[in-house]
Structure formats: C-alpha cells, structure tokens
Amino acid sequence: MRNLFQGRRRFGFTLVELLTVIVIIAVIASLTLPAIIGARRKANWTQCQSNLHQLSLAWMDYRYQNRDDTPDWLSSLYPEYCSSALVYVCPGDRLEGRIDGSKPQDLVDNGSEAFNSTDDNWGNNGIPACSYFYEMCNTNCEYVGGVRTWKEQKIIELQGKDRTRFPVIRCFHHWKDRRYEVRWPGAVTNRMEGMTINVAYDGNILFSCENWKATIVRVH
Ligand SMILES: [Zn+2]
Q1: pLDDT at 120
Q2: Which residues have their alpha-adjacent CB atom under 5 A from ion ligand 1?
Q3: How many angstroms does the Cα of residue 173 sit away from the middle of ligand 1?
Q4: DSSP characters for 111-161?
Q5: N or C: which end of the chain has fewer CB within 10 A?
Q6: Distance CA 72, CA 154 (A)
Q7: Taking a C-beta distance cutoff of 8 angstroms, is the pair 90, 48 a contact?
Q8: CA 220 / ligand 1 centre spacing (Å)
Q9: Are 85 and 126 in contact (CB under 8 A)?
Q10: Residue 145's pLDDT is what?
Q11: Which of 79, 82, 72, 80 is nearest to 52 (CA)?
C-alpha cells in the first residue's frame, strides 16, 4: 500500500531551516551593525562640528561688534549674527533640541546635573530648538547657589585661564562616542567621563571630557 505521505511535497521551512536562517541573519547583523552605527556617529560628529564652527563665527562676530561683551543667550545670535536656526540642532540629539536643559536625558540619568535654566528655549529669541549648552547665559548659576549668573561666574573662572581651553558652547550629545578616565584634584580614584565637542572662548573647536576642569588620565 502506498504511504499516504510519500511523494507529498513540503511547503515552507522546517524549524531547523528557520533557525539556521535566523542565526545567519543575526551573524550578518552583528558584523555590519557596529560599522553602520560608527558611520552614523562620525557623520553626526562632522555635522555638529560644522554647526559649532558657524556658531563660533557668530559668537566672535557678536563680541567684535559689542566691545567684547558676550551674548546673553545663544539665541541672541539669531538672526543678526547667525542666519540659520538649523545650526542650533545637533544631529546626534535624538530629541532635536526640544528638551528642558541642554544635556541628553541619558546623561542626566547618569547622575549629571540637568541645569534646566540654561536651556536656550527658555530665553528664546525666535529659534525653535537648541541642542547646545551655553556656559555664559544670563540666568542664575545653580552650582554656585544662584548668587551669580552663569555669565558672571564664567567671567570670574576665565581669569588666568587658557582661553583656547575654556569651553563656552558645548555639545553633550556625543558623550558615548569616547570615554575619558579623569581625575579631579584631590580625588582618590579616577572616574570615567564622556566626551564633549565645544567652542572655546577664543572661538576654536575644543574636545574635552564632560567636566572640562578635570585632568585626563587616559582616553578610551
Ligand atoms: Zn553635537
């Protein structure tokens, strides 16, 4: 008697075949994903640097036109000194500048201060969004207890410092791209910090760890 199942054509995959395909796809994905993420990070980095370069030109121009006074807000540069509102948004900022506080939420969750009052959206002069942290904004400085504005505090801190190493406009959205092992004066142990891209007081682009006053022990 002919077996009913003999000669019957199979349709679809067996479980083993399906698992094999899944494993192959997973291996291919694991090989290509880091390269894709790396390429995207590099592109974001390049675009952010371009944004900061444009803001630095506007910042230096503002000071030149205003007897070396600094703008109260980053948005004060728009549109007279910086004609595009797009340069205020870092492509690495997943919330596209629509946050309270100029630090990415995952960094704030990591224990960093949000410094919400420094958010340029609060002192908005017409820009829809801002990803960057402005160190010299005209609002009460929380980390000195509000006795001075950030601008007044930074003018004090600037005295005797190398102005090419003094960050004024900062991007925290690349902090996972590179890590620094840093040491604070008097600290017993080193700790890890993320990297930032900055415009320094003298207008140059400056890479630094999150807490720029700390000493870098090693770059990871
Ligand atoms: Zn950025």
Answers
A1: 79
A2: 48, 90, 92, 171, 173
A3: 5
A4: T----GGG-TTTT-SS-S----EETT-SSB-GGGTTSSBHHHHHHHHHTTS
A5: N
A6: 12
A7: yes
A8: 19
A9: yes
A10: 85
A11: 82
Exposed / middle / buried, residue 47 (Cβ in 10 Å: 0-12, 13-18, 19+): middle
Give the tokens for residue 62. 């503002």
Query: pLDDT tens per residue, the chain (220 residues)?
Result: 455 555 556 667 788 889 999 999 999 988 888 888 888 889 999 999 999 999 999 999 999 999 999 999 999 999 999 999 999 999 999 888 886 556 777 787 777 777 877 887 655 567 888 999 999 999 899 888 889 999 999 999 999 999 999 999 999 999 888 888 998 877 888 888 899 999 999 999 999 998 888 888 888 8
Task: Output the pTM of the full model.
Answer: 0.83
Place of tokens 């290509």: 32
CB contact set of 127 (below 8 Å; sequence gap of 6+): 74, 75, 78, 85, 88, 120
Q: From residue 157, how far is each of 67, 141, 144, 152 by CA, in Å?
A: 20, 13, 12, 9
d(CA 24, CA 40): 24
